[in-house]
Design brief:
Elements lengths: L5 H19 L2 E3 L14 H6 L8 E5 L7 E4 L1 H6 L7 E3 L3 E5 L4 E6 L11 E6 L2 H8 L54 H17 L1
Length: 207
């Protein structure tokens, strides 16, 4: 099997890229179900604002042939509804315009009075980086902050619980309650104290 030359490989890559772009392109029917018209008070500015246009998408103008037309014009002619110097003219009644670059595209109907009646369209096409940022998922919640190192190089840990293990590794004990003098009596020494008191009392009774 012969190896493909560099120019042939480039041609194949460009063809595949073009096929991928075509397959992912969206088709937008201008005005929705109303189409391209002066009837029904269609707000084409509102329609364009509800859609997101990318390079490769297709804008479709549907209208009765001979009743309307589509002129692509410059911004100044769009604002003034001037139809004498169009960039392009479409008259088929089912005109499909492929978006090939980002930026604004301006369209009007060239029939006298139609543009002034609102039959005009300003399409804003996103740049590739704008399209990627608008489709990116929202950021996830930040992870909990890690423990900061202490001055001696050890990692600081969470504060200990209310009950603490004894220094000799024994079972956890609660702090003894203070007596009237402020000193505490441990739970382990309390039975011995009671026994000593009983013994002293018994001795005194014997006397």
């Amino acid at each position: 099997m012969q190896r493909m030359g560099g120019s042939a490989v480039i041609a194949v890559v460009l063809t595949l890229a073009d096929m991928a772009a075509t397959s992912s392109a969206a088709v937008y029917k201008v005005g929705g179900a109303s189409g391209w018209t002066i009837l029904g008070n269609v707000n084409y500015t509102d329609w364009a604002g509800k859609n997101t246009f990318h390079v490769g998408d297709i804008i479709e103008f549907k209208y009765p042939q001979g009743i309307h037309n589509v002129l692509e014009v410059k911004k100044a002619d769009y604002n003034s509804c001037t139809n004498s110097t169009p960039i392009a003219t479409h008259t088929s009644g089912d005109d499909k315009v492929t978006i090939k670059s980002p930026g604004h595209r301006f369209f009007i109907c060239g029939v006298p009075g139609h543009c002034a009646a609102g039959q005009k369209l300003n399409v804003r096409v996103l740049k590739p980086q704008q399209a990627r940022s608008s489709d990116a998922p929202s950021a996830s919640a930040p992870a909990p902050a890690a423990a900061s190192p202490r001055a001696d190089g050890q990692t600081a840990s969470a504060p200990p619980a209310a009950s603490a293990t004894t220094s000799d590794g024994g079972a956890t004990t609660n702090a003894p309650a203070p007596n009237a003098n402020g000193a505490g009596i441990g739970s382990a020494g309390y039975p011995a104290f009671v026994a000593l008191a009983v013994a002293v009392s018994m001795t005194m009774l014997q006397y």
